[in-house]
Amino acid sequence: MVALVHILAQEAGGEAAGTAPNWFMTHAFLIPLFCVASGVLTLVFGKRTPGKGPVYGIAALVIAFVFAIGCLVGIASGSSVATGGIHWFTIGGFSVDAGYYVDGLAATMLVVVTGVSLMVHLYAIGYMHGDKRYTWFYFVLSLFTAAMLVVVLAPNLFELLVGWEVMGVCSYLLIGHWYEEHVNSSAAIKAFITTRIGDVPFMFGIFACIIIAGGTTSNIQAIGTAVGVSHDTVLVTAAALLLFGGTIGKSAQFPLHVWLPDAMAGPTPVSALIHAATMVAAGVYLVGRMFEVFVQADPVVLTIVGTIGAITMLGAAILAMVQNDIKRVLAYSTLSQLAYMVAGLSMGETGYSAAFFHLFTHAFFKGLLFLGAGSLIHAVHSNNMSDMGGLRRKMPITFITMLIGSLALAGFPLIGGFWSKDELLVTASTGHMWLFVMFLVTALATAFYTGRMLFLTFYGPYKGHAEPHESPSVMTGPLVILAIATVVAGFLGSPFTSYVFADWVHFGTPEVHHFHGAIAGIGSLAALGGLALGWLFYGPKRDREVDPLQRGLGNGVWNVLQHRYYIDSFYFNGIVRPIRDSVSAGVVWFNQNVLDGVVNGAAVVARGGSGVIMWIDRNVIDNAVNGAGTAMETFGKGLRLVQTGKVQWYAVGLFAGVIALSLFIFR
Amino acid sequence: MNETTWQQWAITITVFLPIAGAIVVMLVPSSKDKMIRGLGVVTTALAFACAIAIAIGFDYNNSAQLQFVKDVSWIPVIGARYHVGIDGISMPLFVLTYLLGLLCAIYTARYVPQPGRTKAFVALTLLLITGMAGTFISFDLILFFVFWELVLVPMYFLIGVWGSANRQYASIKFFLYTLFGSVFMLLGFLALYFNGPLDPATGKHTFDLSAITAYGAAGGFSHTFQLIVFGAIALGFAVKVPMWPFHTWLPDAHTEAPTIGSVLLAGVMLKMGTYGFVRIALPSLPQGAVAYAPWIGALAAIAIVYAALACLAQKDLKRLIAFSSVGHMGFVMLGIATLTTIGIQAAIFGMVAHGVITGMLFFCVGSIYDRYHTREIAEIGGGMSELMPKMAGIFAFVAIASLGLPGLAGFIGEFMALLSSFSPAAVLNVGLYRTFMVIGGIGTILTAGYFLWMLQRINQGESPVKWREHHFRDILAVEWVSWVPLLALTVVLGLVPSIILNPTTNGVDAIVHIVTG
Fold first, then answer.
1. Residue pLDDT, tens place only, B361-405
2. Which residues of chain A neighbour B342 with C-beta distances below 8 Å?
3. Which of A92, A189, A203 minimises the CB distance to B341?
4. d(CA A72, CA A111)
């Protein structure tokens, strides 16, 4: 059976048969192991190393990054898919391998994960300096990276789920890193539970996939082949929808989006790595991995995917416009951008490459923006933009790099996200008009809130209390590198490189991309228009005592937006609290009064009826308890007491029962 | 001792070694407290070594085959035999019993609960180990029943004498409730005896489990008979598991029991019930099993959600963990109720995992109580990470393992139980079982909820001022020694599930083949 799986896997990968995979690809299974090793070393020896923690993680990631680049080079040079593994366990005919699977999608993700993680590791040396759980922080960071790499490389859904859930726990631990504050630990719980609500359907989706593939394997390629020939459309459709539950949770899509903004309670490097660049993208990655299932399912599935994406995209972008906490601006922005990817995938095969190109560029520019925000927070000791302003002169490196990141986010021509958004727009322009409109409107909103963020932090008068200063080079260094990466990443999907990214990551036959002047023009217009509106509202000359947008929208709308459309409070007051406080109390009441009432009632009846129990109670139990001393003083006496009690008890219980029930059975 | 002699006597020696130890302990004067504790450790260590020797000597290529068999006449008048042996299904539970027994004895070297009386405490613990281990290797129904009942006595005293405030109520309830169940079970056994096969050697009725199972598998029992008798036997096992709604003795017993009582109760004793289903009820009465399976599945699904909700409302830390056991055993029973190989293997895996993880949770709670002298969550008031970072770290690790993190022991049993509910045995209603699956899935969310909320209220936050001046000692040496094996197993079972799955495959396959053909 296992052999068959491998044959299936090779056939599925064989469509784009190219040169043999290079050494890095066939040894890709080492990549997560490096991070596992660094995690263990950090936990055991971390406190004794120079710097008290980061060395192992950084060393592992440098090696891992080299491997990732090696894999990408292999893919770029036309290599076929590399896969392999060893048998892990078998249960009732269902067999699970531990292995790896490297294709273009996985290779680009490897670069993103190891690259951003490395930057975050470096940055956190400065940002987390003096933290009381510094070594622990690096341990969890290593563990997280390993888990994410397992997700990326997993050849089967079981292994993917293992990485997926371990990531979730790391996210929980890091959001609640400063758990002395109740808000932080609550945010951590909220994140874990909300994502788990998505993970349960995801798990059921895995079951469905396993059954589709014959109940013997969860190998993704085997499932892909099986859905192609399956006649059970209902099961395939159910599988796709259920799998998408995992995406909704992990990638924080409506209606399970509520955890991500609260997750900003974690340290900012964590927000950059886990809650912007990598983990939250895993949901999108899952859809891509399992795309065969989505394509073979009833078309209604992709319509649902697109609708969820469209709602989240605009809904979150609007909330990003009214935040004061800079990390929350970026968090809502992340929701919105992830929704871009989800919506991109909903367009089917043609949107595949564009969606993942957006994931790729977004990882760099959003990671950059978060780290930049961290640099600001580090300087002014506040998350609130109302405590910032005019910082461009005091923090020039942060300013320039964040400017690049912001322009990439806004879709400013030629920079970063411009190219990926452009590809999404081009794809949507043929046959997905409503998504095209949504993309465009959201792009406008995105540029607006990006401009607002820039102008509130770097322009106008400084309104904070701390003495701002540029961050140390260990923090600005990663900013510069990520800014460069943002620009470079964008060009990988541009006519200047003949859209090389689409050659690496595609579904089915590679798309032929052309530069589409009119659509690029419309996209640029949305970006520039949004930025201009931002300037209009939040330019340095504007009075910011009351948020200009609040004046524009009126207090009613403003309040709804400040309360996040009341979704969070509905969940808490309408679902969480009733279950946690009332339903649970009802269950306990039922337990104590009804179920136990029967038990205790029976005891009372028995006691009143015979008095035998009382006799035993007095003579055996009380003796045992009060007179335990005398009873146990000598072996003989003690043992006899035990035996006496037991035998009499038996007699009572056993004979009564046997007589009563013999009547039924042995009539 | 040559090999055949060892193989014949290995199980007998291993099972009765703790009793022998208990007798020796009773002969030592009470004043030699340290010596008594030492004897407890030595005895359980020897017994554990014997169990390991059996596990090593076991032929895993024939794991469905009964090995280390000793089969001699015992009570000829009624045809009861001393028939012991071990196969792949018994092996994990048998070894787990001795491991937990040893760890409890080590823990007792430091902690003997009020009111002391070390001698009786150690002796009863040893007696308990014999009883529990005996049920897993008995292949004669009378012998099984004797071991089954033997367990009650020491546990009754452990709770009744060394328990906390409400110990009398809890111990009587525990004893009577279980006895109530076992009466039905014994009746079922008698019915099997009188209607079962004749021993070809003597021409008399027999209590031999292998003979009865073979007879039942061949369709020897009528359908109506199976329905009645399965119900009776299942009731006995259901109380022990405990299945909802027969679980109400458990939170009381657990909460009042001394730490090692809770560890052994959760770690091993509950598994006697689930083991009974797999070993006796299913193969002997296959049609009964098919008829009752949906009901068992329904009770299991209810148990999962019900227990999780009850956990959310608990104010007593130990009671919370106790209720969580009801939910975890719900997953085990759900797996069994699917009547599939995956489901029953998941159940066996879940039994072992629950023994390791929940055993460890009870150790933690016991040690936390030892510091704070309260189990009230609100009294403890958070901040344990600050006062005892290592204790808090281990507590969090075990809680996360218990809520089913993949890669740790708790996951496989849950995942596979739910997977088997997605496609249960062909004779069962798929739609119904998928409903159970969904309910179970909701249960996993609630489970995560109450465990994380528990951690928030115990570990996290600022510690109340009143505790700061106590200068609690973080984990002690004796705690490390008795805990590290369980912590290691939590990881090892999660990463290498084959160590449980491989030995059980053939035996479970055989049972499933009997039940669903």
1. 999 999 999 999 999 999 998 889 999 999 999 999 999 999 999
2. 91-94
3. A92
4. 8
Task: Report the first-to-last Cα separation within chain B, whole angstroms.
Answer: 43
The span from the CA of A421 to the CA of A336, in Å, is 12
Q: Which of B187, B445, B498 sits opposite A658 (nearest CB)?
A: B187
| Interface probe, candidates B176, B190, B433, B505, chain A, greatest A C-beta count within 10 A | B176
Contact B238, B295 (CB under 8 A): no
CB contact under 8 A, B168 and A621: yes
Interface test with B, best of A159, A572, A591, A598 (most B CBs within 10 A): A591
Q: Which of A513, A491, A482, A488 is nearest to A353 (CA)?
A: A513
pLDDT at A530: 93
pLDDT confidence of A660, banded at 50, 70, 90?
A: low
- DSSP conformation class of B470: T
Phi and psi dihedrals of A88, rounded to 5? -100, -60
Cβ of A204 within 8 Å of Cβ of B437? The answer is yes
Report the range of poorest mean pLDDT among A436-440, A649-653, B224-228.
Answer: A649-653
Cβ contact, residue pair B175, A603, below 8 Å? no
Beta-carbon separation of A638 and B120 below 8 A: yes
**Chain B nearest C-alpha distance from A184 (Å):** 9
Which own/partner pairs from B219-224 qualify as long-range (CB within 8 Å, at least 24 positions apart)? B220/B196, B221/B192, B221/B195, B221/B196, B221/B284, B221/B285, B221/B287, B223/B287
A607-640 tens-digit pLDDT: 776 666 566 666 666 666 555 445 444 433 434 4
Tell me the chain B residues in contact with residue A664 when contact means C-beta distances shorter than 8 Å.
Answer: 228
Amino acid at A108: T
Residue recorded with tokens 């998505």? A198
Alpha helices in B404-476 (DSSP H): 409-422, 430-458, 465-468
Mean pLDDT to the nearest integer, B479-496: 95
Q: How far B271 CA lies from chain A's nearest CA (Å)? A: 20
Asked if B445 and A91 come within 8 Å (Cβ–Cβ), the reply is no
Question: What would the pLDDT profile of B444-486 be if each residue is shown by its tens digit?
Answer: 999 999 999 999 999 999 888 889 888 899 999 999 999 999 9
Confidence check: pLDDT of A516 > 90: no
Does residue A644 have a pLDDT over 70? no
- The SS3 call for residue B72 is strand
pLDDT tens figures, A580-604: 999 999 999 999 999 988 888 888 8
B419 and A584: CB-CB below 8 Å? no
**Percentage of chain B exceeding pLDDT 90:** 84
Q: Give the integer Cα–Cα distance in Å for B113 and B364.
A: 15
- The yes-or-no verdict on residue A643 having pLDDT over 50 is no
Q: What is the mean pLDDT of chain A?
A: 87
User: Which amino acid is located at A339 in the chain?
Assistant: A
pLDDT value at position A647? 44
Give contacts of B497 with chain A, Cβ < 8 Å.
89, 91
- Beta carbons of A446 and A336 less than 8 angstroms apart: yes
Q: How many CB pairs under 8 A join A and B?
A: 197
pTM of the model: 0.91
H helices present in A321-432, as ranges: 326-346, 349-380, 396-410, 417-429
